[in-house]
Amino acid sequence: MVARRGRRSARGSDEGIPSPPGYSAIPVKFSGKQQASHYLYVREHRVREGTKSSWPQKRTLFVLNVPPYCTEECLSRLLSPCGPVRSVELQEKPDLAESPKEPQSKFFQPKPIPGFQVAYVVFQKPGGVSAALALKGPLLVSTESHPVKSGVHKWISDYRDSVLDPEALRAEVDTFMEAYDKKVAEEEAKAQEEEGVPDEEGWVKVTRRGRRPVLPRTEAASLRVLERERRKRARKELLNFYAWQHRETKMEPCALSPGLQSTPLPCHTKPFSEAEARRAAVLSSLSW
């Protein structure tokens, strides 16, 4: 039984490590005390012909199944025997973007990925990719010369890294705002140059710099419009109140003089009463 087990273990060690089609497996251990190996699956990064990629061709190694304790610095150190490493970037899933990304800030980085990740390793020479595909392990992540923190020590280190330097943060924000203002100024200058100028087919490009400013569709703009309408309605109600008061004043009864009847008559009946008095005086003056 012991001999059979020994033959089976030797046969299993000679057989190749199972890996996805098109990938090569590299065994990795956290430290020399660990017996089980973790496997990284690597292949050369390729895209379809005619498709743009932010990673250089024939110099980029695509790595799957990167464990959480393996950082960019650690992965660069593990693959440095294959050749000089130019850059390493860890991501949650494969990158399908065709345009190059803007450089990330060390102060405004997204939250770290808690689980396994994928990596893009860019070598300075194409030979680094072929050497990495033929790499045999196991590779040690944490060594005496390059220890990797774990447990409470890693939590303490993460907390210290979370405390930012105010001066460095202010300098980076100022640099970003200067670049942003410069970009906006260039866009406005370009829009002014293209405004009203027809192209080769006679079409005129419509820009944001129109004759009549367009109301922005934002919540603040909507609130300003509602406030303006409320004030307009209040002012209109006040004006209507004064008009109604003026009408009521005209419709009030007018008091007659003390020599006439003491019964007040409405204002609109006063001309009729005076006409009747003149008619009675004329009739009494006539002799029949």
From TrEMBL:
Domain Rrp7 RRM-like N-terminal: residue ranges: 22-77
Protein name stated in the entry: Ribosomal RNA-processing protein 7 homolog A
Region of interest (Disordered), ranges: 1-25
Domain of life (superkingdom): Eukaryota
Gene behind the chain: RRP7A
GO cellular component, one term: cilium
Complex formation: Part of the small subunit (SSU) processome, composed of more than 70 proteins and the RNA chaperone small nucleolar RNA (snoRNA) U3. Interacts with NOL6; required for NOL6 localization to nucleolus.
GO MF annotation terms: RNA binding
Keyword tags: Cell projection, Cytoplasm, Cytoskeleton, Nucleus, Phosphoprotein, RNA-binding
Function: Nucleolar protein that is involved in ribosomal RNA (rRNA) processing. Also plays a role in primary cilia resorption, and cell cycle progression in neurogenesis and neocortex development. Part of the small subunit (SSU) processome, first precursor of the small eukaryotic ribosomal subunit.
The keyword Cytoplasm belongs to this UniProt entry's keyword annotation: yes
InterPro entries: Nucleotide-bd_a/b_plait_sf, RBD_domain_sf, RRM_Rrp7, RRP7, RRP7_C, Rrp7A_RRM
Cellular localization per UniProt: Cell projection, Cilium; Cytoplasm, Cytoskeleton, Microtubule organizing center, Centrosome; Nucleus, Nucleolus
Pfam families from the UniProt entry: RRM_Rrp7, RRP7
UniProt similarity note: Belongs to the RRP7 family.
Residue span, Ribosomal RNA-processing protein 7 C-terminal domain: 162-252
Compositional bias per record (Basic residues), positions renumbered to this chain: 1-10
